[in-house]
């Protein structure tokens, strides 16, 4: 281990990654996580503590004074996240929406405008439509897969362009590099919600995005046992502003949650490889099924975003949506009949999940521009044996 890695980290350096050229799989296991300086423990301990002894007034050990401001377990995760996204600063929050809230309240003021995707995550849409709007922030929706549509949606008051790619639940693909150009020309910031892809498949900062948002609850945690969120940026000054608001607003990730996410992230690469392989097989099978009228998966050559996805992603992810012949009732029946695919919200865990977005995850966007088709079923394809998954879907489709 080099001196750099055995040094005591300081809270002031929280989330700053060095210029670490090691490969993704190596960083996932080691970045931000040197062996414990006191005991040699190879896994970062859970520092379940709120306050820290000071060596004289103001004499902080390693910069730690109070765990809302910084906690060593959270610091380890934040440094890890920064390294995985190729950013300079990572910040970990109590949930994905807490991370988004911190970002919006750091960057926006009354009168500002945000362009959001026309198939945004339901909770993100609700945050804009029901919470942030009451504070005078304006928003409008655009099909972010259409570069010109986004350019047209930008106003003089626009501060942010918000992108999810692949999007939820329709797996739309947005060209991140193209929108980074639009954002730069307009003098606005580009935010990419990288939850569906994870940094293993897609690195928005390298493509020109200013800020990456994560729900760590999904692929990063990967085991459906923790709720968390993150922001990562390569702009050091913006990182400082976000860290200030993280502390001022207080929705931080607790030490045990941070530890669970780190544990999940160590296997992110191998899990994602299997998620992608299984989802590809599921998408192929559904495409050939007589009761399926449409399949949404960016790995299919027929997907309108396939070429852009192939350009900016390492593989196509573990999410597949499809429409069922026979309308809403037929779609609901498929969800009810599935056995190995567990009926439930959320995604990105090792176990396969199935849901009806119209009545479940996306019920809050009914009647809005973000409404999803009533005959739509969404799958989070897990890492079980693919033959068992295919058999379950076949029986559920009847
Ligand atoms: C789940 C999710 C969120 C919100 O994250 P929480 O951890 O549930 O607060 C944001 N964006 C996407 C794409 C998500 O799937």
TrEMBL record:
**Transferase keyword on record:** yes
Q: What class of enzyme is it?
A: transferase
Keyword check for Zinc-finger, yes or no. no
Q: Looking at the Swiss-Prot or TrEMBL record, what is one Pfam family this protein matches?
A: Cys_Met_Meta_PP
Give the protein's cofactors: pyridoxal 5'-phosphate
One GO molecular-function annotation for this sequence? cystathionine gamma-synthase activity
State the UniProt keywords alphabetically: Pyridoxal phosphate, Transferase
Q: What is this protein called?
A: Cystathionine gamma-synthase
């Amino acid at each position: 281990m080099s001196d750099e890695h055995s040094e005591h980290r300081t809270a002031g350096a929280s989330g700053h990654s060095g210029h670490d050229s090691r490969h993704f799989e190596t960083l996932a296991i080691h970045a931000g996580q040197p062996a414990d300086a006191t005991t040699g423990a190879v896994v970062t301990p859970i520092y379940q503590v709120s306050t820290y002894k000071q060596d004289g007034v103001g004499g902080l050990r390693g910069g730690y004074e109070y765990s809302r401001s910084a906690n060593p377990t959270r610091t380890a995760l934040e440094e890890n996240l920064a390294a995985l996204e190729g950013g300079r600063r990572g910040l970990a929050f109590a949930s994905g929406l807490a991370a988004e809230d911190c970002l919006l309240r750091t960057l926006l003021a009354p009168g500002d405008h945000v362009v959001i995707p026309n198939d945004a995550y339901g909770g993100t849409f609700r945050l804009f439509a029901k919470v942030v709007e009451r504070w005078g922030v304006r928003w409008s929706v655009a099909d972010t897969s259409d570069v010109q549509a986004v350019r047209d949606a930008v106003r003089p008051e626009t501060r942010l362009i918000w992108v999810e790619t692949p999007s939820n639940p329709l797996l739309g693909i947005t060209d991140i590099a193209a929108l980074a150009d639009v954002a730069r020309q307009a003098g606005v910031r580009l935010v990419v919600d990288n939850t569906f892809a994870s940094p293993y498949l897609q690195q928005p900062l390298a493509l020109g995005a200013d800020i990456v948002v994560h729900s760590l609850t999904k692929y990063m945690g990967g085991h459906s046992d923790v709720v968390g969120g993150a922001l990562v940026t390569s702009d050091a000054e913006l990182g400082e502003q976000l860290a200030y608001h993280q502390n001022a607003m207080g929705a931080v990730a607790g030490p045990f949650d941070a530890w669970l996410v780190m544990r999940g992230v160590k296997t992110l690469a191998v899990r994602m490889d299997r998620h992608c392989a299984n989802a590809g097989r599921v998408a192929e099978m559904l495409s050939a099924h007589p009761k399926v009228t449409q399949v949404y998966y960016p790995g299919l050559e027929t997907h309108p975003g396939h070429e852009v996805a192939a350009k900016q992603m390492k593989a196509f992810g573990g999410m597949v949506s499809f429409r069922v012949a026979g309308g809403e009732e037929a779609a609901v029946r498929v969800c009810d009949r599935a056995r190995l695919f567990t009926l439930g919200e959320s995604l990105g865990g090792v176990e396969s999940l199935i849901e009806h977005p119209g009545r479940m995850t996306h019920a809050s966007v009914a009647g809005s521009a973000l409404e999803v088709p009533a005959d739509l079923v969404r799958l989070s394809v897990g890492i079980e044996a693919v033959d068992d998954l295919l058999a379950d879907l076949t029986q559920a489709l009847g």
